Amino acid sequence: MATELRTLLTATGPIDLTSVDARSTPGFDGDKADGKSALAALGPELADLQERLYAGGRAGSTPRKVLLVLQGMDTSGKGGTIGAVGGLIEPQGLVLSSFGKPTAEELAHDFLWRVEARLPEVGQLGVFDRSHYEDVLIGRVRALASAEEIERRYRAIIDLEQRFVDSGGLVVKCLLHIDRDVQAKRLRARLGDPTKFWKYNPADLDERALWDDYRRAYEIAVERTSTPAAPWLVVPAGRKWYRNWAVATVLIEALRSLELDWPRADFDPATELARLDGEESATGS
Amino acid sequence: MATELRTLLTATGPIDLTSVDARSTPGFDGDKADGKSALAALGPELADLQERLYAGGRAGSTPRKVLLVLQGMDTSGKGGTIGAVGGLIEPQGLVLSSFGKPTAEELAHDFLWRVEARLPEVGQLGVFDRSHYEDVLIGRVRALASAEEIERRYRAIIDLEQRFVDSGGLVVKCLLHIDRDVQAKRLRARLGDPTKFWKYNPADLDERALWDDYRRAYEIAVERTSTPAAPWLVVPAGRKWYRNWAVATVLIEALRSLELDWPRADFDPATELARLDGEESATGS
Known about the structure:
2 copies of one chain form a homodimer. By secondary structure, chain A is of the alpha/beta class. Helix content of chain A is 51%, strand content 11%. Chain A is built from 12 helices and 5 strands. Chain A has helices at residues 5-9, 32-59, 78-86, 104-107, 113-118, 134-141, 147-166, 180-191, 203-208, 211-225, 240-257, 269-283, and strands spanning 65-72, 94-98, 125-129, 169-177, 232-236. Chain A has a 5-stranded parallel sheet, sandwiched between helices. In chain A, α6 packs antiparallel against α10 (211-225). At the A-B interface, α2, α3, β2, α8 and α12 of A face α2, α3, β2, α8 and α12 of B.
């Protein structure tokens, strides 16, 4: 397509999430069946690009590394996206980090300490299921930190991401955007299925009661931390098939932009083949 | 089947790997196409069992955790197995650890220090791509440690695995067994494909020259560390499709043996649904 999806979805200027239809499908012309086919069709290229990245890291031929940040309200489908998109990639290359409630040890450090430790290494595709953004989202809504501290955190996040980019990293930040109706429907589905009870917590409804506060916190966080080095993408996530296709697509676009070649051999293949043949005739095997 | 595959493949008594046909397919009656279909057919049950384990860990309703150890000569297909079997599971539940050459920090500790740190937590399915066994394999063949130290390591490994099992763990140790001819064929394939050069290192042929020493080191390690708590399985890996099917199958058998139920709700679903409905009518959404 002429315009990359990641450009189309990039958040710029003041953000009003109420103006984004959670069930819209920007950049995709088709229905659910088309979307599922399109996702499957992306598999081979995504796997190939990821393997080139991994190979480059192993061979030391590239300094590149990629971080996919997934944020979104409860039931927005962070886990589902990881399952659908991650399933297209070799498990070796995907390093998943889930950020839950900080431990006592983590709280004894700056909020970015645990994040720094989980940043992908050269050659890795790291995926953050929640992230350092929780500290300016729930941190703001629940007043877990002062307003000044939240301000400091926006800047610290920008600095961290810039440093990651400056050392060869590429950041893809996706806000999986749903609305209250989508969440109600998904919570109802969880509450009606005993195999999904473990995903539910009564506190989820307490957080839901603060929907508008969270939405506003997301808008501010996106406005404050969407930088040229690490822009935010707002991905409508009311339709799971679109969400999965969109995240896979922006990831492919990002990986393509790295223009990764396969590492060159630091040995002579013909010599090695001759060694293999010679050794075999010597032992008679 | 009447006898579980993991029982069929369990190593007992003195081990002679030269007597195991790397291209045999014990417990499977069929060809490559059948094997690929059979693997795909295992996907839903494997995914379901893994999700029950993960859910139980999250809900705190089970102390169970599972460790899959993959060992084998170069080109035996540890990575390929992880791709094929891991691809059937949600990425969230699979925690992959690859053990390469120890770092200076790791060498400054006992050999099990880095392993201990990567043991799966409750609810996790951990996969070791190489493992603590390297320290009694290359450790023995290359005389990186004294004979007494190697002896100590066998015992230390048994103790570590027993402790893991005693705290709710289940260990599945698979030796992916190939012979010299299979390796030669696979090395030739790597050397003929520029997209595979990164997997090759001239030192691989130096290790290959020590084939019989490594084979003997594997035999001794398996004999010394195949315990009732953590038995070794010898998986013929000369046929990739059989190897993948066999590892998926023994993993399913192991997970089934845990008899994992979905966690019970620690809330009343009807009450929560009523809260959701009430909150919605109050806000008019």
